[in-house]
Every structure is written in structure tokens, then in C-alpha cells.
Design goal:
The chain has 582 residues and is an alpha/beta fold. Among the domains are: 96 residues; 161 residues, Rossmann fold (3-Layer(aba) Sandwich), CATH 3.40.50; 139 residues, no CATH class. It is built from 17 helices and 20 strands. Strands 1, 2, 3, 4, 5, 6 and 8 form a seven-stranded mixed beta sheet that branches. Helix 11 links the parallel strand 15 and strand 16. The longest helix is centred in the first third of the chain and has 30 residues. It is globular and about 100 Å long.
Amino acid sequence: MLGRPSILLSRTGSFRPENLGQNAMAMIGNLCFTIFVLGVLIFTIIAATYQPEDPLFHPSEKITNFLASKSNATFRADDTVVRTGEDFLGANQTAFSTFINLNDVDVPETADAGSVTETNLDCRGKIDDPIDCTDPDVFHLLMRAAIEKFKDIHFYRFGKPVRGLNDSSCHMAWRFRPKEGKTATFYKDYRSFVVSRSENCTLDVVSIGDYHSGGNARKRKRKNKTGFDGTPGKLDEGFEKATPKTEGEPIALPVVGEAVNDSLPVVESESSFGNGKYLIYSGGGDRCKSMSHYLWSFMCALGEAQYLNRTLVMDLSICLSKIYTSSGVDEEGKDFRFYFDFEHLKDSASVLDQVQFWSDWKQWHKKDGLSLHLVEDFRITPMKLSGVQDTLIMRKFGSVELDSYWYRVCEGETESVVQRPWHLVWKSRRLMDIVSAISSRLNWDYDSVHVVRGEKARNREMWPHLAEDTSPEALLSSLQDKIDDGRNLYIATNEPDTSFFDPLKDKYSTHFLHEYKDLWDENSEWYAETAKLNNGNPVEFDGYMRSSVDTEVFFRGKKQVETFNDLTKDCKDGINTCTSSS
């Protein structure tokens, strides 16, 4: 009993006045630590469950919903012109910084500004003799004339001049980019130069022809070196790519204006075919969907083929969705090469046309004992197929809508393993050459505005202000602080009656896509080349092609004014759908 008070005092001693401050600090510290732990836990939960608005940053099931949506936007350039590999390449300033200046071109001692005097030539009686286009002095004269005339582009390479259509004409080609180019693309032009000779032997450039007027200087298509030896990923030898040196591996860049060789690869021999390993996707519900849906699925197949180190057997005949056709119905029989750069694809990856493949398979598979591995469940991942030794893996898709889409293969755990090789698919260089031709006719010195009207402007419930905000009066008011008076203004629009924009002509020199229809009519190079791909039958310049060209010309304007954000506060996808990017 005598010891109990002392024990009690020792237990309660912590409540003595001199200890209260220390205890309070300890309690506050514990409370703060608890709040910190709870905060970290809450933040972790939010971060794990948050899904951003942009579908491109969604997990694959969100992209599935995005691609399967029934949205019917009226201006096709908004949501139907797909981004391809070249759009993801940055315009590396180091790679494009070295171009040819006027000071880099040698000036002969006998030359004045803009002229050259021939040496060792008695001009008497020889004024009308043919111009020697191979003369180095003539070469320098033409280069200087081109650099002085086309002030809004940078020159990167000149081809040696050749004789033109007559004795006073020379044709010369060059590779260039617009000075304010925003895409990682080179362009090629070849023009006709008229050269005159005076009595004192002085040569002058009298005139320079229009875009692609110097056909004799165009590099001819190389011979068909598209033999397939069964080796996945083999590049054709001799294919000239624009490859600016960057850190790491060189990156191939498009060269718009070069002759296109998109003939189909052929198998060199029976042994080559038998030594190959192939992947083919069959059936499914992707057909006749939007171009963005088609490409998303195709890139999944191409990515799996690369992961498995197999040749992708592809169907070059695609179905164009009715959203792009003038008939308003889905149209079969469109060629992949109408819309995409097949030459770049076949030279950068291992692909075969399925018509050719099945012909060879029928001829040789029994004789050579070639085997087929059938996969009918998209949930069987590429990783599970990596050990398959059969000659052909065929993925067969059913008819159940969502489960029949090719891109389902690349969902789930596959998403982090199989990468879509976007760098392998570029836009058709034939279409991009039309873009280059339009831009060149505007001397690459124009501004552009994108004006969305159509059904969206008529639907005031979803876009209450769009009609008023895109009226001619509103456009003049909106553009006055953005575009200088007198500028060339390219208007990309879905407004069918372009006279609607006539009031803008008082301040700007307006231009529209239909003004350049000679670039795809029956007398054009595009018309002739696409007809060859189509067994001699003419190819319609369809809605997707129009939207693609219209959008790409818009993107090459020096100043670009968008409908949403710049002209109206309405949301691109309708009321209450605005995000930070629309």
C-alpha cells in the first residue's frame, strides 16, 4: 500500500503542467502525419481513376467507344481526315537549317547581276544557237534566278539542268521547303527556264514556268525493284529518302513531287515464299467505317506483324465509307494507294498484297507443306503467338460488332507491348503533290481560315452562335486583327456556295479548293496515274480526298485561323462539350 501512491504519481506525471507543451506538439505531429497519409491515398486514387477528355490519351477501351461512336460532324476535316506518320515528325530545326543561299552560288567573273556572259564564243551569227544547259555558268544562272524569284522557300538541293522543249529552254529541278514550314516534309519542283542570248554573249533568264513545268528534269521512276525474298523488313536497295541527320538513327522524310513507284511487291521464287512467315487478318466489322477507324485497326495489324517478325498480308482494296462519297452509300473497290503512300510502306516494312499471296499459296502450300495457324479469338495475344512456327497465322474475326474490330487485338496487356508503327504510313504523295501545287501557285505566301458551316450552323441547339459568328460581316470583324489587308487568304470550308464569302474580297484575295480543279481533272497527272492503278478506269476525286487536300493547304498557311476558338465560342462538338483543346 505504501508503494501505490508513488506508482500513481509516476503514471500521471505526464499530465503535469511542465509536460503539456511537449504532449501537444506530439499530438499535432501525429495529426499532421495522418492528414498527409490520407492526402497521398486520395491523390493516388484520383490519379488511378482519372481519364482525360482527349480520346488519344484514353486507355484502349475508351478509344473503342470513341471510334464506335455515331457522331456525324458535318465538316469532314474536323474528324475524318486522319493524322499519319509525317504529322508526328517535328520540323527539326537543326536538320533543316542548312539550305542554299544566294551567296552560296558561284558568280563567274564575266557575270553581272542576273546574267552570265559566255566565254570563248564568237556570238556573231550565233545568237540563235541552242543554249548549252549543261554549262556550269548556265547552271549557276538558273540557280540564282530561282532563289531570287521564290523568296518564301528554302532550297536544299538543285539538280543539273537539262535541255527543255526548245533551243532556248532549260529544265531544272530542286528540293525545297517553305521558309515557315511547320511539317517535316521536303518538296520537289521542276520548272522550265527560258534563256536569251544577246549580241555580246550575255545570257539572261527571261521567264520561269509554272509548277512542274520542267518535266525533262523530273527524276524518272526507278525500275521495279520490288522483289520479295521472304525476309521481313527488307528495304529496296537504291531507294532515295530524305534523311536529315539527327541524334540516333536517321529519320526518313517524305519528298513530295518525286515520281511515285507504288507497284505491288512480287515473290521472287517458290523458295522465297516458303521461307517467309506471314500474318493475315480476315473478316471483321471494320469495313466501310471511317478512315480513322480503318487506320486505327490497320495499324494494329501492322504492329502485330512487326512484333512477330512476320510479313503482313494486306488487302489493298478498301471500302470507302458513305460519309465521304458523293453517292451517299459505301463504295467498295477503292485502292489503298489512292489515300496512302504505299511506296514508303513497302520499302519500310514487309507487306504483300493478299491477291498475290493467295495465288502463290494455292500454288505452293501443298507441295511445300506450308502450314496455317488459325486464331478466332481476339483475346489470344500476340505474345502467345510468338512461338508459332506455322508459315501463316490467320486471325479470323466474326460478325459481333465490337468484338469483330481488328484493333481489339491491341487492347489490354498487348497495348504496352505492341506499338502501332505510325512512321510507316504517310499520306498519298499524289494528293500531297496537289497540296504543293496549290501552295506554289500562291507562292507559299498566304494565310488561311477554316470556316465550319453546313449542318452545324443550322443546328442552333448544339451550336447557338456558329451561324452568326461565321457570317461574312462577323468574319471581317474577326479577321481584321489577325490577317493583314490585301493578303492571299485561303478559305477551307464546307460552305458549298463560295459566293457567300464575296464580301471578304474587298479586303483579301480569297481562294478556294474548287479553283484548282485542273489539278485532278481528266487532263491532270493525278487523273492519269490513279487511272493506271484502277485498271484504266477513272478515279473520282472523292470527299475524303477533297477534305484531305483542303485541310493540308489550310495547315500550310503562314497564319491559320480556326473556326472554334478563333471565330466562335461555340464548342466544336456541341454545347457544353468544350475542353481546353477545342
